[in-house]
Predict the structure.
Amino acid sequence: MFTGIIEAVGSIRRIEPRGGDVRLHVATGKLDLTDVKLGDSIATNGVCLTAVALPGDGFAADVSKETLRRTALGELTAGSPVNLEKAMMPTSRFGGHIVSGHVDGVGRVVDISPSGRSLIYRVEAPAGLARYIAEKGSITVDGISLTVNAVESSIFSLNIVPHTAEETTITHYHPGSRVNLEVDIIARYLERLLNVGQDGQPKEAGSQEGGLTESFLMEHGFFRGR
């Protein structure tokens, strides 16, 4: 589990093909690895990876064909910068939001514009994810916990302050950049609770099974409906 607060920007040292999968070798920069051991998780551009080697100034992780297919990791090359975050500890300060490191889809940067000292990034979410993205809700972009400023259909806006720009890879983005997206985990589970019965099968239209309904959530201010 992660928080989306980036601890360091590292870089891809090399990519080693291994029978259809790849092994990523990552230089971790200022990331403190003294408390990391083999088998620990490190979020790399928002993807939860397992450390299989720790040479001292970085780590190596195996990336499956499934992960390459569902994320933008396959587009990285030697020298590409990456956002890094170690798995959170029970005693850690929870500065972002709940991040699992399981990417839901790959988005595309539409445009970037200045706003005072900040930058506004507009990102297009893939089909099927837009319904989970809400104004002033949380979203993870390449592992960065961010607040959604506005939503227009499948495009959402992000206000990036100078500190975030300086401490992450976001300044490397340009229109057309592909980014890993993880939506708020609460939205995903809430949708399943609403749409699936106790037997795990889809509910029939109008079913009140389980007591949790859209009307109940609207009445108590959880959301405004579709």
In short: The chain has a mean pLDDT of 89. Residues 30 and 168 are 13 Å apart (CA to CA).
